[in-house]
Amino acid sequence: MVLRLPKSWSICSTRSTSCSSSRPPAPPGWRKATTGTTRASTAIDWIRFNCHLTDKAAGDLVAVGRNSGGLPESAQAMQAGEIGYSHLVVLARTAEAVGKAFDETKLLKLAREHTPGRFYFKCQHYRHSLDAKGYAQEQADLVENRHVSLSAAEDGCLLINGVLDPVGGAVVRAALEPLARKSDAEDERDLPKRYADVLVELAHGGKPANLQITASVDTVKALTGAAGGEMEFSLPVSSTTVQRMACDCSVMRVLLDQESVVVDVGRSKRVISGPARRALKARDGHCQWAGCDRPASRCDGHHLVHWINGGNTELSNLILLCHRHHWLVHEGGWQLVKTTDGQMMPIAPTVQFARSRGPD
Prior knowledge:
Layout: H1 43-51, H2 55-67, H3 72-79, H4 85-98, H5 104-113, H6 116-130, H7 132-144, E1 147-152, E2 158-163, H8 166-176, H9 191-204, E3 213-214, H10 217-220, E4 230-231, H11 239-247, E5 250-251, E6 254-256, E7 262-265, E8 269-270, H12 274-284, E9 299-303, E10 318-322, H13 323-330, E11 335-338, E12 344-347
Antiparallel strand pairs: 1-2, 3-4, 5-8, 6-7, 9-10, 11-12
Helix pairs in contact: 1-2, 2-4, 4-6, 5-6, 6-7, 11-13
């Protein structure tokens, strides 16, 4: 592809700060931006609009074109098939970053030996070796651009959007990746879903969530006509969710009068006490769902017969379940059955198919 730009135009990257702010206006007949009011003011903008490319792809073309005079050997290597266009982009970007200290021969040798992704990694080391102070300043700038925003959707779901600097991102991934592996061969969750589950699990911390849930006894018992439970930062939650959270929590008795005015508040009491929890962790050691090895530190205590239905808090009625499998038992509709040898057998929820309509 050969792009012929007006000679009066300066070739300026969107990240460059060296170009003059007083650019000549776009020539007549050039396509307007999608807003219909903004004309292309840089070469990158023109390429984006007229060649239907992303900002990065257009910027890569401009970077290669601007630095092609200093990359004669690399251009020949690409034409000969020794390196790819992606290698050439990395070389051009590196040449822009280091200026006169750029050594094409040294980097071209690395480009021939490595994939574009690995070559980019090597070039970062090269840049640091030439200007450690400048490289550190770039990293500091990335930290200043960090942000995470949390917003609630209409249905109550939490929307997460953000950017972390490379070091912060590495810390987060180091925490997520080991826990985001598939739990067993039957784990059908894709990676984004596993990331979501791990994020909640890490926030949970294997301890009873520090959340205050307000629910009536009727709600905990899942009686017909009962209202949902209430908790901070959420829309009303279902009775099955309340039951799961009530499996391993602190319960406080609050009496209300007919006008919903608090008339008495009892003391908070752990459903599974400290000694019972320590004994449970020592006995089970990990999640008791078949094939799951989540450690006890990341598990909840689960009542085989819920305490609201008369189940006791003795070890014979308790098992450890990780956050995901605890959710499957309550909200997911799965059941756990203890076999004669003491193992837990998960049973999938029954799937009902509608009967086909007979002849009229």
